[in-house]
Prior knowledge:
Elements: H1 4-20, E1 24-25, E2 31-33, H2 34-41, E3 51-54, E4 58-62, H3 67-77, E5 82-91, E6 103-112, H4 117-131, E7 138-143, H5 144-152, H6 158-166, H7 171-181, H8 189-196, H9 213-227, H10 234-244, E8 247-249, H11 250-263, H12 268-283, E9 291-294, E10 308-313, E11 324-328, H13 330-336, E12 344-349, H14 351-361
Parallel strand pairs: 1-5, 7-9
Antiparallel strand pairs: 2-4, 3-4, 5-6, 6-12, 7-10, 8-9, 10-11, 11-12
GO molecular function, one term: glycosyltransferase activity
Pfam family, one: tRNA-synt_His
Keywords: Glycosyltransferase, Transferase
Amino acid sequence: MSPISDIRAEAARLRARFEAAGARAVDCTILQPAGTLLDLYGEDIRARAYTTSDPAQGEVMLRPDFTVPVVQMHSDSGAEVARYTYAGEVFRRQEEHPERPSEYIQVGYELFDGSAPEAADAEVFALIHAQLDGLGLRAATGDIGILTTAVAGLKTSDRRKAALMRHIWRPRRFRALLDRFSGKTPVPPTRAALLAAEDPMARAGVQIGLREATEIAARIAALRADATEPPLSREEVALIDALLNVRESCCFALQHLRDIAVDLPAIANAVDRLAVRIEAIDIRGIDPQTVEFEGSYGRTSLEYYDGFVFGFHAPARPGLPPVASGGRYDALTLRLGNGQGRPAVGGVIRPDILLTLREGRA
């Protein structure tokens, strides 16, 4: 790994380039209120972030990223259009990848502009692409919005749609729900017995835990209601699978998605927006044939991405995290802005990985 002084110098260089593109340099405190992040992600965030207690602020977290505090800062400013850049340490637990550092420097560019979302997506993607030229990286993109519109268009109950939406960023859980809702996975014997019992609480014993009896009863009622739902059709599940399995250059992927949209019309508008984005990327001098589109890309990223997502990977170093990544997070700005959404897209670069790759090519 490069010396920290070299990494900081590279971070400063990258931030200066983003400033030259019109971004205002900002900074955010390292200690962030835990409540905001817990409200956004639930208890899952504890597995990824470092928490501690402060006598004045209560529970706080070491900054896991810059996006949330930058959104809050922008919302407080009242501005409509703005560009920001930053550079600094972020802290993330690496239980699944203990070989990776839990503290590293991140340089980012965030664009708040709802007038032409696809053009804004292309601007951020192209700016980051330009910083990585000559490294032979694989540019991968996706669109969480296509998958969410596909789920919204399924012929099933709102309860089941909400469950699938909630687990879009957890691929295994999403698959398990699809299999259960389509009848592919049988109902577990314990659940079948619970649903069949005249009084499920009759032999429950002493109640422990934080859930009230009314909450337990409501959950059982919901499970019973779900058990009466007709299964998802095999055709709809096959269409979702076809969407998730798309992995081609952007232009070929667009053709494939248009074919899927014939039988799954709910995604048609989202696919049209993808076409506009591909054209905007082309206008900025990047050949769309060199950019991959993956239907499932971005589903293991942070959950605030709800549209365009991208990443730059080193094919010769598959063990490395993405050199750069980012995406659109409109819903996050709506939630943190108290209902006043300011559409936004952003991306980050890891200067430490960038230097590692350059040294390998020297």
